[in-house]
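Why run this: before we spend reagent on co-expression, it is cheaper to look at a predicted model of the complex and decide which construct boundaries make sense. The entries below are exactly what would go into the expression plan.
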Amino acid sequence: MDGPRHAPNSHPTQQAEAVRLVSVRKTYGAADNPVVALNNVTVGLPAGTFTAVMGPSGSGKSTFLHCAAGLDQPTSGRVFIDGAELTGGDETALTKFRRQRVGFVFQQFNLLPTLTALQNVALPLRLAGRRVDLRHCRAVLASVGLAERADHLPAELSGGQQQRVAIARAIAAQPRVIFADEPTGALDTTAARDVLGLLRQSVRQGGQTIVMVTHDPVAASYADAVLFLADGQLVGSLTRPTADAVAQRMARLSDEVARRHQVAVGV
Amino acid sequence: MLLLSLRSLRRQPARFAASLLATFLGATILMSFASLLDTRVAGAVDPDSAKTLVLMASVVGGWGLVIVLFAVLSTLSLLVSQRAAEMALLKSIGATPAQIGLMVVGEALAVAAVGALAAILPADLGGGLVVHLLHNTGQLAPDVTHRFGAIAICLGFGITLVAAGVAAVLAARRTTRTNARDALLVAATGQRPVPRARIISGVVFLVAGLSCGITTAVALRGGGVETMAVGAQGAIFAAIGFALLAPVLLRAVIAVLAGPLRVLPGVSGYLTERNVRGQLQKMAGAVVPIILFTGISTGTLYMQEIENSAKAMTGAVQTVADRNTETLNLVVVGMLAVFAGIMVINTLVAATTFRRREFGQQRLIGATPPQVLRMVGLEGAVLVFTGVLLGSLAATVTVFPYSVAKLGTFAPDTSIALYLAVVLAAVALTLGSSVGTARRVIRTPAVAAATTRI
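The model came back. Tokens follow.
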């Protein structure tokens, strides 16, 4: 199945695919009785789009994100990020591949506690040995509304502010793709709305590509398109999603999965 | 709350391994030497033998007491601070400070009791070894047999339990005194001011150490046992003082090293400087055993060297008895140094293991495993530099005055090789345990490490 081609505001030259998975399969456990987390997933995500990935618990959402982001290696199949194939290698090689192309925003804010907001934003650049332009980092912090908080430690910031710093950190390194794993999972409604608005804004205005795993239909409605996963397979997509449409599709999907599992165990 | 503490002990025994090891080894050393007092009171002991036993128990036991207290204090503080988040959580769901205190003290006492209980048999053997050596060196009449009894048990259990209890109360008070929001903040940043009482007592111990040194050099020239006892006391007091002042002194050291660290290529120097500055008290906890290791080893080894030089100066040939005494000294120092060395490893392994999540976070934002290991190595270098520096300073409070008293010269004409060996051992222990543990810790996939909540 092919993914969404729909990319409303992207520039023509950005029509290239930012992420492509070809027949990706990921299994865990013993070879004679493997647990299939991803089953033959093929999808391409155009550059400059905001894609949400949804599915019931155990559908393979997290595995999808980890494989697409180069955090985990598929059992078989190929993964391309910005046209470059993710090939096997040691952890150092994988890290270098990722830090040139990929940024992350996680549910737990994952800021380093001994660094200020600004220092956290600049850290990926330092780690990659790139020249650190503090003016640029400050500007990115300002764009997420935290100009005044640049010199605060994470513990002095609210959860929503910490997550905005994490987004600024991902944006400042200018990666090809930002992967977000339940970025609003630990936030209240207002902070969550701010964070989602920021993610969408970085796509619309900055041409950023974002792939976000979420279980929240409201969060998914901020994306350009939603991919639905069930039992490790892509089972559908929705463009220009609304929260209601996503919620309905999710409810149907959960019922189908429950029925299929009942059939499988012969109930 | 006591039920809760026993349950957390049963559920997470690995967490308490470091505290258990510290209390077990500490109680072993304490009871080994305290059993000499049992031997003394057990029956007919001639006056010379009695004097040897009491001197041995009090002088060596004194050093032992100091390092055991510090080891128990520092590992328990580490344990409590690693659980700061858990305690903040308890507090936020309505636990009173007294309830949390009871839980922490209950855990500490339970761990200390198990450690002391396990130490009985090894301590019996250790005391027997010391008596055997004393027999061999002719300092103890052959008919005196080693006893292990009530004094050893009482002192061993008493000191270990009191040390653990006090450590737990101090550590818990730090957490429970702050309000719930601040407790969460401290858990996240690990920063709190160094208590004034700690600074004042540190200065008092330093002054006491210095006055021991001055007394040795000025008033006890050429003296016998008292010179050795007071002389050795100087380094002990100075080492305690430096250990108490470690957070303050580490801050000064990192301020001086900040320049060189920033000049280093790559990001490791920058992160090291930020980490040490940002977590002074945690880092100082790892410096303390290095100070004690360096102080004890250097101080006592060079006292023995000076003793030998003094003998040589008077033209006397070293007798068999002298050589045996030297062996005995070295064995005793060896025991204490090994203990301090194990504490260096113990503290660093526990502290580094706890950083699993931090390493995972760094790797997710683009740090390669070699970058993480370089950072840990550099931090270790800063810690061992500070510990060796302060430990050496503490040792000079014994070594130079003792040299003046015994040899009449400030700088003893002894080899520097011993000192270099001590420094090398400190460096190897520190870097081996921190980098070795980090290497093991970062085998966890980055994403799993960063998203777990320890």
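The longest strand of chain A covers residues 17-28. Residues 30 and 36 of chain A are 11 Å apart (CA to CA). Bring this page to Monday's planning discussion.
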